[in-house]
Design goal:
Elements (H helix, E strand, L loop, with lengths): L6 H12 L5 E2 H7 L4 H13 L3 E5 L3 E6 L6 H5 L11 E7 L2 H10 L7 E7 L17 E8 L9 H19 L3 E4 L3 E4 L2 E12 L4 E11 L9 H4 L5 H5 L5 H22 L4 H7 L7 E6 L2 E10 L5 E5 L2 E5 L3 E4 L1
Bound molecules: biotinyl-5-AMP.
């Protein structure tokens, strides 16, 4: 069920957030806007229902003691410095897959930048029918509706741009050495901390919309990963040794993504390429790429205008637009 916090409760919350050490009396709260003391009482209860810890003091006064450990639309949009991304937010406690819902919303004309986010995914999707583990409260599982005016062949560039926004956001927030692993991963010391899934609705020469799915492992402990993933996957908490604020990271990512995406729409990858290559985990390394039933070996050289990987092989330079990469 889509959730929105009623307006009065949102206003009360804003005031309580200003100073979390003090109690605000009902009288004081009701002078900020035209609401009866009973309305304030109701708003406090509403906030409690959403997981905010509201303490009641003497003479019907209220203090915000703690925030809920879930991502709520009004918290996401507060001080979010974007023009388009995240202007419409659909936040859920649990969904099968944020990509799936975003796809439906896009078909119903959801605007560019619409954000779908869920605390938990019961059937998170990876590429090519694979799954994506998305346990509750420890990650960022989100999708954005995009409507880029580019031909479908250039769509992989969006995946690489997202990798740049992911790696930069993680670096900025944690100082960890997060890198872009072409085509759709963000890795730390070779372990996957985030993945990107692009789903397209397009005609031959024109994209109708792109659903950009992003999963970031934030606060999982090692036990959250099955044995098969322990060597391949990691979370920011596991790398940093402490929890990371999911809300802060989400906003940073949305802001960084918007910057990178608008630069891409204006000038393609021309100027972004240097940053992308600078943060690549593959560049200059000997790699093996599997795509379809083929395998190619060589040195990762560069990315091209469409986000394809340029590899120097014994047979000369080759470009591939998607595949699985391993270091040799
Ligand atoms: C991806 O696929 O990396 C794309 C992941 C996209 C997930 C987001 S979450 C929000 C949005 N809604 C969705 O339903 N999906 C998107 P791929 O490169 O195919 O990697 C999938 C493989 O990574 C799996 O087969 C596992 O081996 C591994 N894996 C699964 N869950 C993982 C996790 N949480 N962290 C790291 N690796 C994982």
């Amino acid at each position: 069920m889509k959730r929105t916090l009623p307006k009065v409760a949102q206003e009360v919350l804003k005031i309580l957030k200003k100073d979390r050490t003090r109690f605000y009396s009902t009288r004081e709260l009701s002078t900020y806007f035209d609401v009866s003391p009973y309305g304030i009482h109701q708003a406090a209860n509403e906030l409690r229902d959403w997981g905010y810890v509201i303490e009641e003091g003497k003479g019907k006064s209220y203090r915000l003691k703690d925030l809920p450990d879930v991502l709520l639309p009004h918290d996401i949009s507060e001080n979010l410095h974007t023009r388009v991304v995240g202007k419409e937010i659909h936040a859920y406690k649990a969904l099968k897959s944020t990509n799936e819902l975003a796809y439906r919303l896009a078909r119903e004309d959801a605007p560019e930048g619409t954000l779908v986010i869920s605390d938990h995914q019961t059937k998170g999707k990876g590429r090519m029918g694979r799954g994506w583990l998305s346990p509750p409260k420890v990650g960022l599982w989100l999708s954005l509706v995009l409507r880029p005016p580019i031909p479908p062949a250039r769509a992989p560039a969006i995946s690489v741009c997202t990798g740049l926004a992911l790696a930069s956001s993680v670096r900025e927030m944690t100082q960890l050495d997060a890198r872009i692993k072409w085509p759709n991963d963000c890795v730390i010391q070779g372990k996957k901390v985030a993945g990107v899934l692009l789903e397209l609705s397009a005609e031959l020469d024109k994209i109708d919309f792109v659903i950009l799915g992003v999963g970031i492992n934030v606060n999982q402990d090692k036990q959250a990963f099955p044995k098969s993933l322990v060597k391949k996957a990691t979370s920011l908490k596991m790398e940093l040794g402490e929890e990371v604020d999911r809300l802060k990271l989400l906003k940073l990512f949305l802001e960084n993504f918007e910057k990178v995406y608008s630069e891409f729409l204006q000038n393609g990858l021309e100027r972004l390429r240097r940053d992308i290559n600078g943060l690549s985990s593959l560049l200059g390394k000997e790699i093996k790429v599997r795509f379809g039933k083929k395998t190619l070996k060589g040195e990762a050289k560069d990315i091209n205008e469409d986000g394809g990987l340029i590899i120097r092989t014994k047979q000369g330079e080759k470009v591939i637009s998607a595949g699985e990469v391993a270091l040799l």
